[in-house]
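Q: Predict the assembly, please.
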Amino acid sequence: MVISNIDSSLANTLSHRRQRLANLIDFPAILWSGGSSPRNFPANLFPFRPSSHFLYFAGLQLPNVAIRLEAGKLELFMDDPKPSSALWHGEMPNRDEIAQTIGADATKPMSELEFSVEDAATIAVQDAATWTQQSQLLNRWVLPQNPPQGIDLELAKAIVSLRLTHDEGALTELRKAAAVTVAAHKAGMAATPQAKLEAEVRAAMEGVIIAHNMTTSYNSIVTVHGEVLHNEQYHHRLQPGDLLLADVGAETETGWAGDVTRTWPVSGKFSPTQKEIYNLVLAAHDACIAKIRPGVEYGDIHLLAATVIAQGLVDLGIFQGNAEDLVEMDAHALFFPHGIGHLLGLDVHDMEDVGDLAGYEEGRQRSDRFGLSYLRLNRPLRPGMLVTIEPGFYQVPAILNDVNLRAKYENIVNWERLSQFSDVRGIRIEDDVLVTTTGSEVLTAALPNDADTVETLTNS
Amino acid sequence: MVISNIDSSLANTLSHRRQRLANLIDFPAILWSGGSSPRNFPANLFPFRPSSHFLYFAGLQLPNVAIRLEAGKLELFMDDPKPSSALWHGEMPNRDEIAQTIGADATKPMSELEFSVEDAATIAVQDAATWTQQSQLLNRWVLPQNPPQGIDLELAKAIVSLRLTHDEGALTELRKAAAVTVAAHKAGMAATPQAKLEAEVRAAMEGVIIAHNMTTSYNSIVTVHGEVLHNEQYHHRLQPGDLLLADVGAETETGWAGDVTRTWPVSGKFSPTQKEIYNLVLAAHDACIAKIRPGVEYGDIHLLAATVIAQGLVDLGIFQGNAEDLVEMDAHALFFPHGIGHLLGLDVHDMEDVGDLAGYEEGRQRSDRFGLSYLRLNRPLRPGMLVTIEPGFYQVPAILNDVNLRAKYENIVNWERLSQFSDVRGIRIEDDVLVTTTGSEVLTAALPNDADTVETLTNS
Ligand SMILES: [Mn+2]
Ligand SMILES: [Mn+2]
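A: Predicted assembly structure:
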């Protein structure tokens, strides 16, 4: 945590955010930052990552502190570092320095927090030591796996309504995350010709992120088995006919995330079948982005992607039928089984810690339809929202070999024709798209996605 | 977790380990692997790392399973992956395949574990979801922050006695970790001339580790402020007169750790004062390694380092007095305030999760002396132990500006002479040393540590 690198406008940004919160709730909120989680023994810790709700209002990655927000005022509860900690951790900014940086109205030691909890709402953090403390001080269970209740739910809804759209302070950070994410993907493409393992491409990509003093915003996917949607293995050898799918994002020093996927040919050249499907996924991607503007339902963007993919598969002779009908019966989900994207902000699936409160407009619930159940966002778009657009095509054995699904879609899929596309295991193209007042802005547009340029970047 | 990459001798190694455990205890032991810890929301997880005690007997990084060891037999409690998980995570090895790989004598679903807990000892894992389950099933508190009691303490002592010395299976992995750690440090030196930030050197080093499909065994220290002992900041710019201290280690796919520190000049050339101190730290390092053999007290190795450093500082005119007397009064700790090293194995501070049970011979306790309190290992050395040797010299403001310490050592330190060494903020040289039957073997010997070669590697 480095104060010197923090933009001087931080205090203004934070003040504005808590004023907006004060317009929505009439009770105090206490947000804990959380502590580090142990890895294999208590002193060997995973890198500290504070609660995103805390970060939104406090701006800095401060471990083991709390802020109390009421009527637009911020009280910082924090203990000054012990003198002995200077030996191990160096001189850290003290409470008053932090308070000045974030524009706190008052500061107190953590021991006084217990006298300020009355009628306060909170949101559970992820680490056990801190949610235990939250539960004890507030005298009720505050658990990350429980949906918020009562005033905690009211607080969560208020914060969601703020975090759904991004202010300038957030956008400055999100553009930084996007830029480094783009650079990581370019490095991954460039490293592929010399790489023998997936792990080597991952190293080139994460190396860029580490070199910018950022972290990955989620565990990277860098795989020649793109059909495994959450693949976190990196041991496979790269073969000339493989496609490499990389879903890698950078997170800035103050916690804002990027999330991009590209798919490129290991050999530097798509096969004809790979190029057909690649261009189909890209067509879906481009159609979705072209449709983004305020007022459009994100669910309709998802259905648009499904329709473009279904139509493309009809054109390729893989599907038989009419695209709208195919989508109506969820046939697209055989090859595109996930949602078209999600909110992006301080979390890669922004605010997923409070369930679907952020992703789903009040009164809406997840569908249990095969083609819709994984849709993470179902709201009308508004200026300032940042969403991902990430259509894909996958040949997932667990789906395509499922007896029930094969029976259901027996007359729709031309399995013989499909077998000609066996060198297309998984393709996804994902960008980060800001909803503007007139349409959209792709924050990750500096990363080409047309097949020819992707080939060139891989060969360079 | 990839079965195909696992050496076929794994089952034999594991069988031998549990036979040896059976010779030490006459009650069953249940070891849980643990689960992933959440980062900023429940589905965004830190990389999974099982309990090291589990890994020692089960060999594979399996989440959310348990093994029951009794009389040399291993029962594997594990649920087969749900069919739906194949969509997201791909086809994983099933319970029977895992059981064959690790040589399990029986397999059961996790739901049957509750019927096998009678009289069983365990060791707490680090993640809250699992230690909650441990506590519930065993009907007593099993918490990672509590020292083990009763049969749990007996089990911990038995496992410690096994893990204190490494078998061939362990050494094979520890040599792999050492080799990749060495390669990472060479890459860091080579990247320094082009680097502007600490973070860029870190990226080059961790890139090597990631490219080998390994992880870091602890959060890397890569800093021009080596005087901050646990520095985890990487934002400083590299200046020509700086020394860069890098404490970075690789951990293999089955969890075995490397731990190496080198210090090199950013410019590729030590200043005369830097070289004086560097060579002094190296002399302490070499003297300690030369002394390692079975039967030698590790505490005496620490005191040898302290004495070499004290004598060197006398020779340089920084200390006045006799080296033995200076060590007796802890004067060396002004500049060398930590211990000479620690056990290394599946944990970078091996078995530190059970406190000083591993580090301290039964009946011994930590000293509260300024010069000894951070000594992590205090036992006679035995063949098969792997220890680090990591002397250092630091000018820590929190120590050197401490009023009490300055008063205590007023007549010992020539502060004016010391001020001539202001370009030496922190130097450490650390290697991983195996105790052999006749002496020692430095597993990280492939990484040069003499000043000239370090300069050459930095300039290459
Ligand atoms: Mn995404
Ligand atoms: Mn060490």
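Chain B touches chain A through 69 residues (CB under 8 Å). The pocket of manganese (II) ion (ligand 1) is lined by residues A 259, 342, 388, 390, 430 (CB under 6 Å).
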